[in-house]
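Reopening this ticket.

The earlier resolution said the output was attached, but the attachment link was broken on my side. Pasting everything inline this time so it's all in one place.
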Amino acid sequence: MELNLDIRLPRDSVSVPAVRGLLEASLRSLGVLAPIREDIELMLTEACTNVIKHAQDGDDYTVRVTIMNARCILKVIDTGTGFDADEVPEPSPHAEHGRGLMIIQALADDVRFRSFPHNGALVALEKRLRYWEGSLGHRYAHAGPDGPPDASGGTPLDASLDGPLDGSPHGSPDGREPGQRA
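Inline output:
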């Protein structure tokens, strides 16, 4: 089972709830357990909000979602000036802002940052999925070439990560690298 969403959005705060709603509907339709959906939605919200607040010189950004069997990979790609995640200061314990990257790193199973100085940045997140018994995701999460496994069994799936986060192209939906203009 594989689901792919590629969405180019304006760098505007109204885009965040729109893309979050699309992802939530997809995850819910597949039968992803609510706590996992909530983690993914929060990670996406934080990554998109960081683009809107901090990506300078970029008018748009791309959200690329791949749901493959029992894992979800989110890539948020902006066309701004790029950033070095190692140079982002730790927020103070009482800070109300500046916690986005820390939240993302706490919730994701894997996080990778890639910067293209003066051409944008890529934040790639991976989360293991767990499904309700009998859901589409449960039936197909470990399907082989002959179709889905037997839908019997009583517990949600908890599959391991099997492969690198950066196995697919990082460019924009039309094949360009982040920040590359048409």
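Reporter confirms the inline version is readable. Strands lie at 2-10, 60-68, 71-78, 110-116, 120-128. The domain at 2-140 is CATH 3.30.565.10 (Heat Shock Protein 90).
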